[in-house]
Design goal:
With 297 residues, this protein is of the alpha+beta class. It has helices at residues 2-75, 79-82, 124-134, 148-153, 177-183, 272-279, 286-296; strands spanning 162-174, 194-200, 209-215, 227-246, 249-269. The longest helix is centred in the N-terminal third of the chain and has 74 residues, at 2-75. It is elongated, with a radius of gyration of 58 Å. Residues 29-106 are annotated as: Disordered.
Length: 297
């Protein structure tokens, strides 16, 4: 009996377990189906939301690109900046013109210096030599001793005009490179080869005057104590030591004298008779003398 009872119990347990297993299998299948459906639903929702987010991201991306393009256009340098030219507002203190300043036209540095009458510093000698070399000039009306004071006082009034004088060579000094070095001048460099002092007689001894001639000719072209007719440009004044012999007395002074640079084509030896009767003969003409003196006063 006990064996039969035990067998019955075991059989019942097996049946119970078999039913539970079927129910568990059914529950498992139902749960699985529900999870699949939930998974599909969740996946569909995610895909829908993902597509929406994607569209929003695309829109945002397009907007961002447009904004960036705008920034690029604003930040894009203009042609001048690309070429390295920086422009500044004209109303700022540090503003500078965008155009390069025009280069000043070069001008001939040689001209008549009317502010400085000293020939050793005004450069008029060099300019006169250039003009005499480049052009041809003619003899002008003589200037007389009484008029020399005007030449000394206001030489600039006569710049560019040919001045003609006649007188006696009282001193001749050769101009060499050593002369320039010793006296710190530029005479030789400016083509001057000899320095002459010409004494010019006036209507009286009180009116006698001297004039300096800076010549481009060498000193061997001139004779001491000979008379010459000389025409050239007045270039200013210079101070020189002058010795005067009057009535047995000798007097030496530093005197400011007018300076002429002559045209070598207008330098002529003058016979003494011609000098006396020609040049100085004008003083015998009362009308000429009166006119000249009236102009001086």
């Amino acid at each position: 009996m006990k064996k039969v009872l035990i067998l019955s119990v075991i059989t019942s347990i097996i049946l119970l377990l078999s039913g539970c297993g079927e129910r568990m299998v059914q529950w498992s299948e139902t749960t699985s189906n529900k999870m699949e459906e939930s998974g599909k639903s969740a996946g569909d929702n995610i895909r829908e939301k993902g597509e929406g987010v994607s569209e929003k991201l695309d829109t945002y991306s397009q907007d961002t690109e447009a904004t960036n393009e705008g920034f690029k256009e604003e930040a894009k340098p203009n042609d001048e900046t690309e070429q390295g030219i920086t422009t500044q507002p004209s109303n700022t203190p540090d503003a500078s013109p965008t155009e390069s300043p025009k280069v000043a036209e070069k001008k001939d540095a040689l001209r008549w210096n009317k502010e400085d009458k000293a020939v050793m510093s005004n450069h008029n000698i060099k300019y006169a030599v250039k003009l005499l070399t480049d052009n041809a000039y003619e003899f002008s009306e003589y200037t007389y001793a009484e008029q020399f004071d005007r030449l000394t006082k206001s030489p600039s009034n006569y710049y560019g005009k040919i001045i003609s004088i006649a007188g006696t060579v009282s001193e001749i000094t050769p101009i060499t490179k050593d002369f320039d070095t010793k006296y710190r001048t530029t005479l030789y460099a400016d083509a001057i080869r000899s320095l002459l002092i010409i004494d010019v007689q006036g209507s009286s001894n009180d009116n006698n005057r001297s004039i300096l001639v800076y010549s481009t000719q060498t000193n061997d072209k001139f004779l001491l104590n000979a008379e010459y007719s000389i025409s050239g440009f007045l270039v200013g004044t210079d101070t020189t030591k002058l010795t005067v012999h009057l009535q047995g007395q000798t007097e030496t002074n530093y005197v400011e004298l007018p300076v002429i640079v002559p045209d070598k084509e207008l330098v002529y030896p003058m016979p003494h008779e011609e000098y006396i009767n020609g040049y100085l003969g004008a003083y015998s003409d009362d009308e000429f003398l009166k006119k000249m003196l009236d102009e001086l006063h």
